[in-house]
Amino acid sequence: MTIVLVHQGKPQLSTTLCDTIVKSAQKSLSARGVFTLALSGGSIPKMLSTDNMIAAFARHSIEPSFENWHVFLADERIVPSTSPDSNMLSLQTDGFLSPPSSIPPPTSYPIINSSDNTPSEVSSAYQNILTSILTQSYGKFDTIVCGMGEDGHTCSLFPNHELVRNQSDNFVDFIIDSPKQPPERITLTFKVLNEARSVIFAAAGGGKSDVLQKVFKKGEGSEEKEPSEEEPMRLLCEKDDSEFPCAMVSPSEGELLWLVDVAAAEKIC
Ligand SMILES: O=C1O[C@H](COP(=O)(O)O)[C@@H](O)[C@H](O)[C@H]1O
């Protein structure tokens, strides 16, 4: 069964997401001294604003600090670093990757991209840096935050794409024919996603309700009460992993948590 937490709206969902990341960081830092995290682009960076993260540290009575956090991209579009399509740029401008100077920042890893590099070279270079840093957390990500597109893609793993039909043993792979622009991208693979200690999905808005209806069936033990400002509604769902890439992520030994809002969950509640 998969736990799906249904929130009143995006602000409440963002609060749970930031709280879950801060808790996971504390656990990883005390167990291994580092916190390895991968973040998606799209709607995720705004949920992870510096203000939202500082508020999450405060709720846990912890001084805000991203020291010993190593932040990778769950996927990236192969575009110049100044392009508005760059996921790293939106994590820096909308997310917490560039906090005020009083807060120790995380170490973050952009893709190394120049016009001389092919997508395959960009992907191999990213895999090399990622695998070298992941040795510090025993070869696994502590936490990966995934978004979900309205077509059910996650990271840059798109429905029916070759990378989904023939899953590779790489940790990072590339595509040159993304159905969503821009076409050239690198992405974490199912291998590394499914080996993570925890994967958190965050999906908000009515545009996501059709896919969620196909993926989740509400099961016994689900709460019936409406979500409140303070508390999400907890559903225990059966997950159909036959069609959509987002549903094919199920860490074999790790935790899986889905955070959605009422609009996205409308057809499963
Ligand atoms: O293209 C992408 O889309 C997905 C979903 O985006 P969202 O705006 O619907 O949340 C995102 O998770 C991924 O990182 C991005 O490259």
TrEMBL record:
The reaction(s) annotated as catalysed by this protein in its Swiss-Prot or TrEMBL entry are:
6-phospho-D-glucono-1,5-lactone + H2O = 6-phospho-D-gluconate + H(+)
> Record keywords: Nucleotide-binding included?
no
Q: SUPFAM superfamilies given for it? A: NagB/RpiA/CoA transferase-like
Q: Which UniProt keywords apply?
A: Hydrolase
- Residue ranges constituting the Glucosamine/galactosamine-6-phosphate isomerase domain according to the UniProt record: 11-258
A GO molecular function annotation here is: 6-phosphogluconolactonase activity
Broadest EC class assigned to this enzyme: hydrolase
- Give one Pfam hit by family name: Glucosamine_iso
| Keyword check for Hydrolase | yes
Enzyme Commission number, as recorded = 3.1.1.31
Q: What GO biological process terms are annotated to this protein in UniProt?
A: carbohydrate metabolic process; pentose-phosphate shunt
Question: What InterPro entries does this protein's entry cite?
Answer: 6-phosphogluconolactonase_DevB, 6PGL, Glc/Gal-6P_isomerase, NagB/RpiA_transferase-like
Under PANTHER family, the record lists: 6-PHOSPHOGLUCONOLACTONASE, 6-PHOSPHOGLUCONOLACTONASE 3, CHLOROPLASTIC
What NCBIfam families does the entry give?
pgl
Similarity field: Belongs to the glucosamine/galactosamine-6-phosphate isomerase family. 6-phosphogluconolactonase subfamily.
Q: What does this protein's UniProt record list under function?
A: Hydrolysis of 6-phosphogluconolactone to 6-phosphogluconate.
Q: What is this protein called?
A: 6-phosphogluconolactonase
User: What organism is this sequence from?
Assistant: Triparma laevis f. longispina
Q: What is the lineage of its organism?
A: Eukaryota, Sar, Stramenopiles, Ochrophyta, Bolidophyceae
